[in-house]
Design a protein that fits this description.
115 residues; alpha+beta; HIT family, subunit A; five-stranded antiparallel β-sheet; 3 helices; 5 strands; 22% strand; globular; binds guanosine-5'-monophosphate; binds zinc ion
């Protein structure tokens, strides 16, 4: 499996950096964002190192489909029962900060939110 020794999320996958894990199997890890924007803020990542969504190819289709398909149960279990947002930031113009592909799952009531 592809692994980048300098990558923050690869280090989380390897257990070198601690995280609050929610789900894990051979392919995917889900953990709480360290700086949540909402009551529910999970990050879904492939365990293999894929830097950005722009690096995804058809061979990753099953992996990404699996990630997408597990979102409803994760959202429900985390308490995002009235909807959620799934966001993938890609590259510099997409505002990506960590260059290991990840999907944000953001939900829960946000009474302070304007838009
Ligand atoms: P991006 O801007 O790349 O889409 O999002 C990166 C996310 O990773 C941010 O929401 C940030 O809070 C989160 N993050 C950065 N470093 C860590 C960390 O060490 N642990 C966890 N759990 N989340 C992190
Ligand atoms: Zn990585």
């Amino acid at each position: 499996m592809t692994h980048d020794p300098n990558c923050l999320f690869c280090k989380i996958v390897a257990g070198q950096i601690p995280s609050r894990k929610v789900f894990e199997d051979d392919d995917i890890l889900v953990f709480h964002d360290i700086n949540p924007w909402a009551p529910v803020h999970l990050l879904l990542i492939p365990k293999q190192h894929i830097a950005t969504h722009a690096d995804v190819t058809p061979e990753h289709a099953a992996l990404l489909g699996k990630m997408m398909a597990m979102v409803p149960v994760l959202a429900r279990d985390a308490g995002a029962t009235n909807g959620f947002r799934t966001i993938i930031n890609t590259g510099r113009d997409g505002g990506q900060e960590v260059y290991h592909l990840h999907m944000h799952l953001i939900g829960g009531a946000r009474p302070w939110k304007q838009g």
